[in-house]
Design a protein that fits this description.
By secondary structure, the protein is mainly α. The protein is 66% helix and 0% strand. The longest helix is centred in the last third of the chain and has 19 residues, at 109-127. GO terms for molecular function: metal ion binding.
Length: 150
């Protein structure tokens, strides 16, 4: 009962001062909006991956954030991420990063992924990293033939 009375009292006070909850929320959301160009975005993530003191958690966090966005990272960001994996001595993370990038290509994987591999091939060779296809990860190891193929 006390909670209900306090809630009604707060609504009366807000109404008397002219404070609208929705207007306050909109003002906060609009004030935190930043305008960052694509070049600034790329430079920010490239610099983040190029830090010498980056640890495994930070690398995974940045990679997860990038893969969670509705975009395919630029090849220079992918190269910086692969070099960070090499500094961390984490080959598995590099392979998962490549798998995630291929997955983020979506329905355009036939056009975007070959371009990406072409652009990052020198770095892959330099670091000794193979693509998921070269490792055979694109084919399941113990998959059975479909009943329609028998």
């Amino acid at each position: 009962m006390l909670r209900a009375a306090a809630g009604q009292l707060s609504q009366v006070i807000r109404g008397s001062f002219g404070v609208s909850r929705l207007a306050a929320i909109g003002a906060v959301r609009n004030s935190s909006h930043s305008t960052e160009t694509d070049a600034e975005f790329d430079a920010r993530y490239e610099a983040y991956f190029n830090r010498n003191e980056i640890d495994g958690w930070e690398a995974r966090k940045a990679m997860n954030d990038l893969l969670g966005m509705d975009l395919v990272p630029e090849p220079k960001i992918v190269i910086a991420g692969l070099k960070a994996c090499r500094r961390l001595n984490d080959y598995a993370l590099a392979i998962r990063w490549l798998e995630g990038i291929k997955d983020s290509c979506g329905p355009h994987v036939d056009t975007i992924w070959p371009y990406m591999v072409q652009e990052i091939r020198p770095t892959l060779t330099e670091l000794g990293i193979e693509t998921p296809e070269e490792l055979g990860y694109n084919q399941p190891e113990l998959a059975l033939k479909s009943v329609y193929e028998l």
